[in-house]
Design a protein that fits this description.
A 7-stranded mixed β-sheet has the order 4-12-11-10-7-5-6, sandwiched between helices. α2 packs antiparallel against α9. The longest helix has 18 residues. β8 and β9 form a beta hairpin. It starts with 17 loop residues before the first strand and ends in a 9-residue tail after the last helix. It folds into 2 domains: 35 residues, no CATH class; 245 residues, Aspartate Aminotransferase, domain 2. With 299 residues, it is of the alpha/beta class.
Length: 299
C-alpha cells in the first residue's frame, strides 16, 4: 500500500492490467473471475465492445462543457429514463451518494414549496446504506460509520426494515418522506416484501409523504426489471440511481415526478461535472444494451 494514498481501504496485494467480460487479468497473465464487479458497478462486464466504442467516439469529440449549455446526450438519456420509469424529470450527477443527497433535497424542497417547511424529517430503515457523505451516513444511521464525524445530520428517524407498524408509529407532523432500499445491499441482500413496498406507497399517500427509493445498487436491471420497484407494481416519487447506470463510468441520477420537483428551481441545485457529454454517452450505450428486447428476460 502506498503511503501517498489515504489508508481508507484495506487493499488486497493485487493489481489488474485489463478486464474482459466477467474476468480480470494481472500483468503476469493470471485470470480472475470478478465477482465484485467494481462493487456492483460493471453491470455489463469489463470492456464491453459497445461501451468501448461509444467512449472512444465521444472522447474524441467532447468531454465536458458545463450545464450552462444544452447537452444533447444528456437530454436523450433523460428522455429514455423517463420513458422507461415512473419519472417525469431527471437530474444527473456523478455518484450514488450525490444522487441520494439530491433526492433528499428534492423531498425537503417539495414540502417547502408547498408551504410546509417543517416537514423535513425522513423515516429511514435500520441496516440501510445510502452513501458516505455526512448526510447519507446520517440517513443510514450506522454508528460504526458515524463515529468520529462530529454532529450527525439532523432530520432522520430510523425504524426496522420491513416493519410497517413501527414505520406508522414514527410518522409525526414533521415527517416529509420515507426512504427505503427495495433490496438492502450492505444490510445483507435483504429484499423488501412486495406487500411492504405497496404498503409504503399507501401510507405515503395517506400522510402526503414522498416515497424515496434508493435503487443505486438494485436498479438498472439487476432484478430482471429495469427497476426493483416495478415488481411491486408501484410508482415512487423519487429514485436515486447510479452504479450500473454507467457500466463502470462515474454517473448518478435523481429520477422524480413533476410533483416531487415542485421546489427545484434554477439555482437550487447544481453540479460541475454531472451530466457531462462523456458520461451521458456511455450511459446511453448501457441503456442500448439493457433495454434491448432480449436482455432483461434473461437476467
Amino acid at each position: 500500500m502506498s503511503d501517498a494514498l489515504m489508508h481508507t481501504y484495506a487493499r488486497a496485494d493485487l493489481a489488474f492490467e485489463r478486464g474482459e467480460g466477467p474476468c480480470l487479468f494481472t500483468a503476469d497473465g493470471r485470470r480472475f473471475l470478478d465477482f465484485a464487479a467494481g462493487i456492483a458497478v460493471n453491470a455489463l462486464g469489463h470492456s464491453h465492445p459497445h461501451l468501448v466504442k461509444t467512449l472512444q467516439e465521444q472522447g474524441a469529440k467532447l468531454w465536458h462543457v458545463s450545464n450552462l449549455y444544452e447537452i444533447p446526450e444528456g437530454r436523450r438519456l433523460a428522455e429514455r429514463l423517463v420513458a422507461n420509469s415512473f419519472a417525469d424529470q431527471v437530474f444527473f450527477c456523478n455518484s450514488g451518494a450525490e444522487a441520494m443527497e439530491g433526492a433528499l433535497k428534492v423531498a425537503r424542497r417539495y414540502h417547502f414549496s408547498q408551504g410546509h417547511p417543517e416537514k423535513m424529517r425522513v423515516i429511514a430503515c435500520s441496516g440501510a446504506f445510502h452513501g458516505r457523505t455526512l448526510t447519507t451516513l446520517s440517513a443510514a444511521g450506522n454508528p460504526k460509520y458515524l463515529e468520529g464525524t462530529g454532529p450527525v445530520a439532523e432530520g432522520f428517524d430510523h425504524v426496522p426494515f420491513g416493519n410497517m407498524n413501527e414505520l406508522r408509529n414514527a410518522i409525526g407532523p414533521q415527517t416529509g418522506a420515507v426512504l427505503v432500499e427495495p433490496i438492502q445491499g450492505e444490510g445483507g441482500i435483504r429484499a423488501a416484501d412486495l406487500d411492504y413496498l405497496r404498503a409504503l406507497r399507501n401510507v405515503c399517500d395517506e400522510y402526503d409523504l414522498l416515497l424515496v427509493l434508493d435503487e443505486i445498487q438494485c436498479g438498472m436491471g439487476r432484478t430482471g426489471k429495469l427497476f426493483a420497484y416495478e415488481w411491486a407494481d408501484i410508482e415512487p416519487d423519487v429514485v436515486a440511481l447510479a452504479k450500473g447506470l454507467g457500466g463502470g463510468f462515474p454517473i448518478g441520477a435523481i429520477l422524480a415526478t413533476a410533483k416531487a420537483t415542485a421546489g427545484m428551481a434554477p439555482g437550487i441545485h447544481g453540479t460541475t461535472f454531472g451530466g457531462n457529454p462523456l458520461a451521458m454517452a456511455v450511459a446511453n450505450a448501457v441503456l442500448d444494451v439493457v433495454l434491448a428486447p432480449d436482455f432483461l428476460p434473461h437476467v
